[in-house]
Amino acid sequence: MNWNIFTDAKLIEQLGWTLLHSIWQIALLALALYIVLRLIRPHSANARYVVAVSFLAISVILPVVTFLQVSERIDIAQARQQYLQPDDNFQSYLTREKNTLTSPLTETDPIPAAQTAVNVSGSLVILRIFIERQAPAAFPFAVALWLLGIALFSFRLIGGVWKLHHYKSSGDALSSEWQHRFSLLQEKLGVDRAVRFARSNLISTPIAFGVFKPLIIVPAGIFLQMDPRQFESIIAHELIHIRRYDPLVNVIQNVVEVLFFYHPGVWWISKQIRREREFAADRAVTNAMVDCDVVYATALANLEEIRLTANKALPSMATAANGGNLMQRIQMILHKKTEITRASSAWPAGLAAALISALLLGVLSYAPASIVNAQKKANGRKLAVGFVSIPPLARPEGNVMDSDATTRLMIAKLTQYKIPAIGFVTGSTISDGDKLYPVRANMVRLWRDAGLEVGIGNFKHVWFYNTPYDDYVVGVKKNEAVVKKVLAEKNLPLRYFSYPYLNTGKSVEERDRFESWLNAQGLHSVKYTVDNQEWMYSYAYDVARLDNDINTMTEVRVAFIKYMDKMFDHYEAYSQEMFGRDIPQTMVLTSSRLVADSADDLFGMIQKRGYSFVSMDEAQADVAYNTPENIIGEFGNSWFERWTATQGKKLRDEPRVDDSVAAIWKDKQIKK
């Protein structure tokens, strides 16, 4: 095409004006959507989704309307141009307008305030005329760049479509058993459309796509990486996307993103749509499947771990269960809040009160009598929790993404149960002593930003008994310097120290000397009353996870909860024998995947025993923690055992670790 013809074309001018006006129009729409989403935050995710989709539709409609009106505006501009004398130039016209607008007032002129308004209005007119005369010269280049951008983004979109077609053609049919289970799930969710299910080695996470012939493709190996109930919850998520016609909206989004690739506002609005779409689908899953909140949240975390390990990107045309902000989604799943529609100022309060009353009535009606009686009997029990160490160890060693997934799931569980836990950092896992390891240090920041306290152990997880005093202090100082870098970012203090392995040194004098040094640093050591061998169960669980041995994983989790229940019996008996009451307890755990995956069972069991979760400050403020103890040895002990032995009393027989778990740990020692 001849460039002169291109530059003179009326269509180019219309497109140019449309693109120019779309910049401020869509920017205002994005700002308006931001305000509206803030106002309707208490409402359902589906309501927010509908609003965001509506704003995206308006973002398309406005430029179309602008395009249709441009011809008329061009005619008006041409009529205005006739106002200028043929031999005038633009500068003389501006001078004449300025003189007219700033001429002296007469008795018939407006009052000064009105004159100021006229001046402002006139300035805007002059600015508008300036733009109208100067902008068209740039329109051919702007439109050419716009068309080039559309071509490039279209190639990207076509590539995604081709990739989905490749997935579809390479997919294999699933077994008849799973096809039957999918059919039952489809019927349960009310999906009356024909949906094809397939599996493929080319993907790492389940995806759904297709408008007229929907298809769900799952990774071929996912059956070995998730238990069936978790997997069903993920498939339910994809079926709900299909039921809601989300793939159709997603296709439209992709087309709009291609047309308006140049505008950040469109990308932001589209991001909000995808975000709220995932929240809405999550809520639909938890509403449709009974008691699946934790199962579903765990499945999402596992799915993200699988995806990160595979490191495969998905085409934007597909909807995937692990889309959106994973951490926010897990938090919303585990913190289900009643969503209400606010019809009037009084109605929400009345409805909320009614819902809360109904909830309390339902809980009290459902709770077994034995649980209610146990809670009454043990009313007032308190427990503080410390985790050693954060970030969690990865299985296999070095798998940072596994640690990250475990960290996020653990934080979600602690937030759900409102546990003000302390995470004790082993500095060598997040730093070389000088520079922070970005990914691992960020896990500590996640813990910190969730409102959980951060404490320290030694720079390396070493036994005080086997480490010279000066070397031990140097290690703690080094760890203190590392962790304070992370806390200083939020101006947070460092207050607590936890002895690695609960080992307090070779002698009472050495321990007292170290305690004095800690106090001088503004640090306080934690005295754990509920010690346990959870780390052995966690190791057995990690071994089973590496082998994708779901049966063993389940057995370890069941055995772990039974073991911990016995440990609470054990230490509660100590409390009654020594103090004649239930003192506030302090429990040590590792930040393992077992604890994260078993959190509902573990913390639920603890609550049923009548415990409320309190801070370490509150627990150790009890006078019981001032009880003298002088037990020093090679191994670490619970402070109940230390207090008992100091008084010359016989220790109670501690519950044993399950033989199957002990055998796995023993095998590890042999392999060493």
Q: How do the strands and helices of this protein lay out in sequence?
A:
Blueprint: H1 3-8, H2 10-39, H3 45-81, H4 90-101, H5 112-134, H6 139-170, E1 172-173, H7 176-189, E2 196-200, E3 207-209, E4 215-219, H8 222-225, H9 228-243, H10 246-259, H11 264-288, H12 293-310, E5 319-320, H13 326-334, H14 347-366, H15 369-377, E6 381-390, H16 400-416, E7 422-425, H17 438-449, E8 453-456, H18 469-488, E9 496-497, H19 508-520, E10 524-525, H20 534-546, H21 550-579, E11 585-589, H22 593-597, H23 599-608, E12 611-613, H24 616-620, H25 639-646, H26 659-671
Parallel strand pairs: 2-4, 6-7, 6-11, 6-12, 7-8, 9-10
Antiparallel strand pairs: 1-2, 3-4, 3-5
Helix pairs in contact: 2-3, 2-6, 2-11, 3-11, 4-5, 6-10, 7-9, 9-11, 9-12, 10-11, 12-13, 12-16, 13-16, 16-17, 20-21, 20-26, 21-23
Got a strand count? 12
Structural class of the helix and strand makeup? alpha/beta
Q: Specify the helix fraction band.
A: 55-70%
CATH C-level class of the largest domain is Alpha Beta
- Round the Cα radius of gyration to an integer and report it: 33 Å
The CATH topology of the largest domain is what? TIM Barrel
Strand order of the largest sheet: 1-2-4-3-5
Distance between the termini: 76 Å
**For the report, how would you describe the main beta sheet?**
5 strands, mixed
Tell me, briefly, the overall form. Answer: elongated
What percentage of amino acids are in beta strands? 5-15%
- Average pLDDT for all residues: 79
| Unreliable residue runs | 82-90, 96-122, 337-378
